[in-house]
Structure formats: C-alpha cells, structure tokens
Specification:
alpha+beta; nine-stranded antiparallel beta sheet; single chain; Cathepsin B, Chain A; 26% helix
Length: 288
C-alpha cells in the first residue's frame, strides 16, 4: 500500500474555531492536484434487509433501519458518565504492542510473533493519531483521510463536524459515534470503501488479501483482555495487515492500529480477534 510520506499538519493556531479549520482543510483539498477518485469505490458488500416496506412499497436497507436509532457508543456503551472515559485508563499487556523498530527486513518480518508480515504495517503506524474523547471511530477513519489526502485533521475538528452532522455525541451514556457516522468521514472525503454486516473471518481475510484495510468494531473487554472494563464496552480499530506462518503460510494473527495507542500496532491472534469482533466490516481500498 503506497501512501505518501508528506502529511499537511498545518498551523492549528491560525484558527479560532473547528469550523474555520475544517473550511481551511476543504479549501486546501480543492486546490490539490491529487484529488481522491470517487470512481475507485469498492462495490457494496452489505445485503439489504427486506422484512419491512416503506409506504411507497420500497424495501428499506439496513441503513434505513438504523439511521434514526439513538446514538450508540462505540467506546463506552451502557456505562455511567463517571467512567465513560475508561478508554483513557486502558493498560494492555506490553507484549502485544509493537513499534516500528520491532519489525525487521524492512517491515516484512515480525520476529516477536515469528510472522511474515503482509500489508504496509510499519508505514501504517505513522497515520493513527490519539483520541482524547469517545472519538475512536472518527480517528480510525481519519487515518485513511491522511493517507489519501495528506491532510491531518485534528480530533476536535472531526468531533465538531460529526456532531453537527448528528452522528457523534461527546458526553453522556451514549457518548460516541453512531452507526451511520462510522463511515461518514470516509464518505465525505470520497475514500473508496464498502461495508458488510454479519461478516465472517474468511470474508475479512479475503478483503485483506485483496489489498484493503478494514475498520471493525470490537468488544473492548475481550479485545484488551481486561475484565475490569464494563461489559458491552465497544471500540473501533483498523486491521492494517496480517501475519503468516513462514512455513505453512497460514494466517496466524492480525496487525491493528488503535487510537488509544498511537505510534504502535497491536498484534492479535486469529482466535482472539474472532472472540472480540462485532462482525461489522468496513473495507477501505488502498491509496493509489
């Protein structure tokens, strides 16, 4: 996956409001010769649900059915306000977090987990930024905006934009990004992607092997192997590569960027990911 080295961080001190900075980012992209190609979008993967009809006889899609559902936290579902920012306190086992220097052979081998690395995992580590609020889904999408547009969008700007769209709520029991908002940033910047619900691990493997990265939702309690986290706590992360056994070629684990731990990538085994995964899958095509 060939991503540009140059990221436009900008001088955030020039802007007094997130709206001004959002406008400036849009203006910069309008003048950029390297525009995102909306025609490169992946074909839709999600199936329609036809158990209901609209008044005009049209069958609703899954999107129609969930668009008006109240906000559902992707970070802290069914948690009191007092502990809704639990994600700031997560302490994963250090052995599962890898930095760029932990890989060898130009990022093609993971000596700690003894895997051949597929995907540009070392480069991907550079793109995931930190979340300081219930913005994991927004920040998971933002890393792909950086890859495609070379524009770094600050967390507060994304949170403001998603909240004005009605897809994000910063506080309370439903703090987080709703179902529609989990692709809203990709759609706004015409990042080629497709979405599938009730996906299988075989379908995820096929998408990865086709060169895509994948945004997924996970149960944080299982994902971090931390029983102290509240039951039902959700989190959004990106699968940016996989590790293959050097002898058999069998997929033995996945590499995941996580906005709770920027500058690192998490290695998780196939079985552990299946246990934590909510079975949603947003495939994002590689940048040209």
């Amino acid at each position: 996956m060939d991503y540009s080295e140059t990221i436009e961080n900008g001088d955030h001190g020039l802007f007094s409001t997130p709206e001004e900075e959002w406008t400036a980012i849009g203006n910069a992209l309008d003048g950029d010769d390297q525009q995102v190609d909306p025609d490169g979008a992946l074909p839709p993967l999600g199936a329609e649900i036809e158990s209901t009809e609209f008044g005009d006889g049209r069958h609703p899609s899954f999107l129609d059915l969930v668009a008006d559902v109240p906000l559902t936290s992707i970070v802290a579902h069914d948690v009191t306000e007092l502990i809704s920012s639990f994600f700031l306190l997560i302490e994963p086992r250090p052995s599962v977090l890898l930095a760029s220097g932990d890989f060898s052979s130009g990022g093609l081998y993971d000596p700690i987990n003894e895997c051949i690395v597929h995907g540009d995992v070392v480069r991907d580590i550079e793109y995931i930024d930190a979340q300081t609020g219930p913005t994991c889904s927004l920040m998971a999408q933002e890393q792909f905006v950086e890859r495609y547009t070379r524009q770094d969008i600050p967390e507060d700007v994304l949170a403001w934009r998603a909240e004005t769209w009605g897809y994000y709520q910063p506080d309370g029991l439903d703090a987080g990004t709703n179902w529609v908002g989990q692709t809203a940033v990709l759609e706004h910047f015409s990042i080629p992607h497709s979405r599938e619900i009730f996906a299988s691990v075989e379908e995820m493997d096929a998408s990865l092997q086709a060169g895509n990265d994948i945004l997924i939702g996970v149960d944080a309690r299982d994902f971090y192997d931390d029983p102290s986290l509240p039951p039902g706590s959700g989190h959004a992360v990106a699968v940016v590569g996989w590790g293959a056994d050097p002898d058999s070629g069998r997929i033995c684990g996945y590499y995941i960027t996580d906005s709770n731990f920027p500058g690192t990538v998490r290695f998780i085994t196939r079985d552990a990911l299946e246990q934590a995964w909510y079975r949603d899958m947003i495939s994002v095509a590689p940048a040209a």
